[in-house]
Amino acid sequence: MAGGLPKRILRETEKLLSEPVPGIDARPDENNARYFHVIVNGPKDTPFESGKFKMELFLPEDYPMTPPKLRFITKIYHPNIDQLGRICLDTLKDKWTPALTIRTVLLTVQGLLSAPNPDDPLANDVAAAWKANETKAIATARQWTRIYAQV
User: Fold this and answer.
1) Average of pLDDT values for 13-25?
2) Residue 23: which region, alpha, beta or left (left: phi > 0; alpha: psi -120 to 50)?
3) Are 72 and 109 in contact (CB under 8 A)?
4) Which residues form the active site (predicted)?
5) CB within 8 A of 34, min separation 6: which ones?
6) Are strands 24-28 and 69-72 parallel, antiparallel or unpaired?
7) Distance (Å, whole) CA 69 – CA 86
8) Could you report the per-residue pLDDT of 23-59, keeping only the tens digit for each?
């Protein structure tokens, strides 16, 4: 592990590696221990099931006073995730508190995949499609999962 990192980051990283979040693989980059390569398995019984979604997570200099930066690299059809992979999640913005951890953030993202919220969208077109015809939107999300998130 890189020297000079705050004990908090070292502890959180150690715990992520020794007790991984079920369905999520998060590993620090070998050249930058503040940057994590993340793979989230699509939750069971969702349109994202069977997908493996690559994400990147970065811990800013003032973490945990500010939230981690997190984005999807794998394309995903979801009302709360835009084309650039940015995520609309209150715990990454105004509801962030230093009591939260990398683990909590990853669990929250996993929860967002299980329960898309078209009423608080980041991708307005996807949210509109989700509201207009949820069945069709779910079919599109499944199709995107097959096309972009299969390993």
Assistant:
1) 95
2) left
3) no
4) 88
5) 5, 9, 28, 58, 59, 60, 63
6) unpaired
7) 9
8) 999 999 999 999 999 999 999 999 999 999 999 999 9
Of 115, 109, 84, 100, the residue nearest 23 (C-alpha): 109
Pair of tokens at residue 121: 């969208």
Q: Which of 71, 76, 61 is nearest to 113 (CA)?
A: 76
Instruction: Label residue 99 exposed, middle or buried (CB < 10 Å: 0-12, 13-18, 19+).
Output: exposed
Catalytic residues: 88
How many other C-beta atoms lie within 10 A of the C-beta of residue 83?
12
The set of residues, in sequence order, having a beta carbon less than 8 Å from that of 67 and lying 6+ positions away, is 91, 92, 93, 96, 100, 105
